[in-house]
Amino acid sequence: MLPRLRNPLGGRHDLAVDLGTANTVVYKRGEGIVVFEPSVVAIDEEMGTVQAIGESARRMIGRTPASIRATRPLRHGVIADFEITEEMLRYFIRKAADRRSAPRVIVCVPSGITEVERRAVEEATLGAGARRAYLIEEPMAGAIGAGLPVSEAYGNLIVDIGGGTSEMAVIALGGMAVSESLRVGGYELDDAIVRHVQQTHKLLIGQQQAERVKLDIGSAWPMDDEIDRTTEVAGRDLTTGLLRRLSLNAREIRGAIARPVAQVVEALVNMLERTPPELAADLGVRGVVLVGGGALLRGIDERIARETHLAVSVAESPLTCVALGAGQSLDEVSVLERVRKTGR
Length: 344
Fold this sequence. Notes:
Elements: E1 15-19, E2 23-28, E3 32-38, E4 41-44, E5 49-53, H1 55-58, E6 68-71, E7 74-75, E8 78-79, H2 82-96, E9 104-109, H3 115-127, E10 132-137, H4 138-145, E11 156-161, E12 166-172, E13 175-182, H5 186-201, E14 203-204, H6 207-217, E15 230-237, E16 243-249, H7 250-256, H8 258-273, H9 277-286, E17 288-291, H10 300-308, E18 312-314, H11 321-329, H12 333-336, E19 340-343
Parallel strand pairs: 1-9, 9-10, 11-17, 17-18
Antiparallel strand pairs: 1-2, 2-3, 4-5, 4-6, 7-8, 10-19, 11-12, 12-13, 14-15, 15-16
């Protein structure tokens, strides 16, 4: 085990930020998770000003007047709108840290992003008020947060299914031996539900309703109560233009999201085929750990277990696991030596 050095960054206001497509989670040194809010910003396009950020902005999605746009400034885990992302980060950093402090911040990023995308995250973090910015890849942070012994000389397999990306890696000796980053996540499942309801039932529903359907009755593997487990949605009938309600069952939704689920599983299988045999043997003993919001999809553990022939477990706190791991890495020399660092 590599030695631990307490507080190598100093500063009790240091933060770790899981800057996700769906949610932003902020960990503060000594306090734990202090912010968990949607990565949404509402903009007044006539005035060019920010109207709301986080949960209050999320409630505006699909309900805003023409002059206000509620948007997610990240797409597939990377910055799609730099200025809005910087504003959102500034809001969350100020909410988590003392307004008078300039904290050092470690930000979680997908393992597959380009150098340009990495620089954009660093610059946005510094522009948002951080004194120094560090990046850590999401699979590494997730593995640390899940309590895996990432510094040991044997393989650990982590799968992080987020809102915009699915990240997976085999980690040993403090580094990622093999990894895969797929730009498919929870939002692709939501989109698949919207398309299914539109094409099959000629009913137009919103993204938030689709997400609720996924959470209520979605599954990645056949369940005994699929026919009986139902939920109701309301939307605009594409034939009459009027409001109509519709009941959906779990079997139907499992079929609707089958393609994006299969893409995630196939990416994992392909990565395992590239894994060195010694590490593959370790995985046969240690299995797979799932983190991220997608880990909560019913049957996803069973589906992965059947496809990979590995034992599968879900981390204790899958939604906050990545932020917790990034926070713990503030004290872990073996990880900090591997994160990209920049400063003013």
